[in-house]
Amino acid sequence: MSDTMSQEIAAAPDSIKAFDERLVQVSDNLPKRLKQCADYVANNKDRIAVSTVAEMAEGAGVQPSAFMRFCQILGFSGFSEMQRLFRDSFVGGWPDYSTRLHHLRETASGSPSALLAEFVDAGRVSLEGLLQTVDAQLLEQAVQQLAAARMIHIVGMRRSFPVASYIAYAFEKMAVPAMLHSAVGKLESHHAIREGDVMLAITFSPYSAETLDLVEQVAVRGIPVVAITDKSVSPLHKFGALTLTVSEVDFGAFRSLSATLCLAIALSVAVGTMRQDD
Questions:
Q1: E strand segments, the chain
Q2: What are phi and psi for residue 7, nearest 5 degrees?
Q3: How far is CA 59 from each of CA 44, 52, 97, 217, 245, rounded to the nearest angstrom?
Q4: What is the pLDDT of residues 221-267, one digit of tens each?
Q5: Is the peptide bond preceding residue 235 cis, with omega within 30 degrees of 0?
Q6: Cα-Cα end-to-end distance for the chain
Q7: Which residue, 160, 166, 95, 97, is CA-closest to 131?
Q8: Are residues 167 and 114 in the same domain?
Q9: Comparing C-alpha atoms, which of 39, 46, 41, 44 is closest to residue 97?
Q10: What is the mean pLDDT of the segment spanning 171-199?
Q11: Keywords in UniProt for this one (predicted)?
Q12: Residue 109 is part of which domain span?
């Protein structure tokens, strides 16, 4: 560990919000193995309370000793202290669904009904975690910013496109001025983004280069950006985006949009309601 990194180590975070802030602070300057730990933790915070250090290290693709070193860089004495923070935060309400998901994976026959059960359970975990990952104050700020916009420009590519297109549909039905940027036919519409507009960007790891490029273009022009993404260390943070974080539990290599669409519905309706009130 470098002297510079050692000097930056402070007391252990005492809340999930403080944990997220510390994770953002240290992530960019970590060496490769520790960066893997940061990325895995940022995208799987729901697993910290119910996993062992060996399981977390395996998920991050590193040795347990490297994961322990990562915990110490965050300010904890070790993994147990970091885990205690998350267990205390979810006391009385932590859903032990990881055991059920493991059991389903072991017993599933691969039939459509078995797969349906897998994805229903993964979706349930994602939805129950949504209230923990989305900061209520940031959500309120995002709604106010979008409701005050002259025009809302929506961008989401690949897996994010269903979310972006749903929000565009909902805004159209509520008479909220909005434009969907889809890059169909390689047509670019960034010249349509003007002062007084707001960009709403949706992207998840691995992040869409087209989405990041468009966000960067508007951010340097001073256009506000609201983002829906999946990590507290998402690259959208460096553009000053007001970020709403969603964690989706995956089954196998497939990740649903259960929590993301729930947030999209709530955000859209809140914006439409606020515009009508105004």
A1: 152-155, 178-181, 198-202, 225-229, 242-245, 250-251, 254-255
A2: -65, -25
A3: 9, 11, 17, 35, 20
A4: 888 999 998 876 677 777 888 889 888 876 655 677 888 999 999 99
A5: no
A6: 54
A7: 95
A8: no
A9: 46
A10: 82
A11: DNA-binding, Transcription, Transcription regulation
A12: 97-129
Residues 70 and 141 in one domain: no
**160/125 same-domain check:** no
Based on the fold, state whether residues 160 and 263 are members of the same structural domain.
yes
Q: Does residue 51 carry a pLDDT above 80?
A: no
CA distance 199 to 150: 11
Helix crossing, 32-43 with 53-60: angle to 10°? 110
Assign residue 195 a region: left if phi > 0, alpha if psi is -120 to 50, beta otherwise?
Answer: beta
One-letter amino acid for residue 35 of the chain: K
Tell which wins on pLDDT, 145 or 105: 145
Residues 150 and 124 in one domain: no
Residues 192 and 269 reside in one and the same domain: yes
Residue 244 pairs in a beta bridge with: 228
Label residue 106 exposed, middle or buried (CB < 10 Å: 0-12, 13-18, 19+): exposed
For residue 264, give the nearest of 168, 144, 141 by alpha carbon.
168
Tens digit of each residue's pLDDT (9 = 90 or more) over 146-163? 999 999 999 988 888 999
